[in-house]
Amino acid sequence: MRAVELLQNRRKDFETLVIAQDSVSYGQRLPKDDGWGKRALKALDLDQTRLHLHGLKPRDEYLKVLQASTAHVYFTEPFVTSWSLLEAMAAGCLVIGSNTAPVREKVDDMATGILVDMDDRDEVAEMIEWVFNNPLEAAEIRAQAREFVLEHFDARKVFAKKAEYLRALVALD
C-alpha cells in the first residue's frame, strides 16, 4: 500500500483494486476490529476514490479481474505459495512478487514475472510503473508465465502423473 501511495501521487490514471480479507492467515492475530488494511488506510495518504477494496469474490469473477488487471502484486513471507500465484500466472496476469524463496520457485525474474523486495516501496512502485510503461515486454512476460503454468501445473498433466505414481505404489505390494 506504500507503493500505491507513491503511484497515486505520480499518476492520476492509477487505480488499485484489492481483493482480500483484512485478516491474518499466518502469525499472531490482530485485535478485534483491527487489520492491516485498516492500519494502512490510517497511516497513508491514499486517494480512496482510486482505491477499490473488495472482499473475496467467486472464482469466475476473480478470474475476470485477473484477466483485466495490469499486474497482480503477490507478497508472502517464507511460507508456501498460495494457489492465487499460479492462478494469476495462468490467467495471463503479470505477477509482481516478493523476492522470497517460495515465490522464486515459480517466478523467474523478468521471464515469468517480476521479483521485488516487498519492503522497498520505491522498487515496488517502480516495477508496477514499468509494467504500465512497457506493454510489449510485459505481454511477453505474461505469455511466458502462462506457458510455464500450463507446462508444469496443468491439471490434466498433474493428475495423470499422480495416477501413474499411485499405480506404481500399488504395484509394489
From TrEMBL:
<dbReference type="GO" id="GO:0009103">
    <property type="term" value="P:lipopolysaccharide biosynthetic process"/>
</dbReference>
<dbReference type="Pfam" id="PF00534">
    <property type="entry name" value="Glycos_transf_1"/>
</dbReference>
<dbReference type="InterPro" id="IPR001296">
    <property type="entry name" value="Glyco_trans_1"/>
</dbReference>
<feature type="domain" description="Glycosyl transferase family 1">
    <location>
        <begin position="51"/>
        <end position="147"/>
    </location>
</feature>
<protein>
    <submittedName>
        <fullName>Glycosyl transferases group 1</fullName>
    </submittedName>
</protein>
<keyword id="KW-0808">Transferase</keyword>
<dbReference type="GO" id="GO:0016757">
    <property type="term" value="F:glycosyltransferase activity"/>
</dbReference>
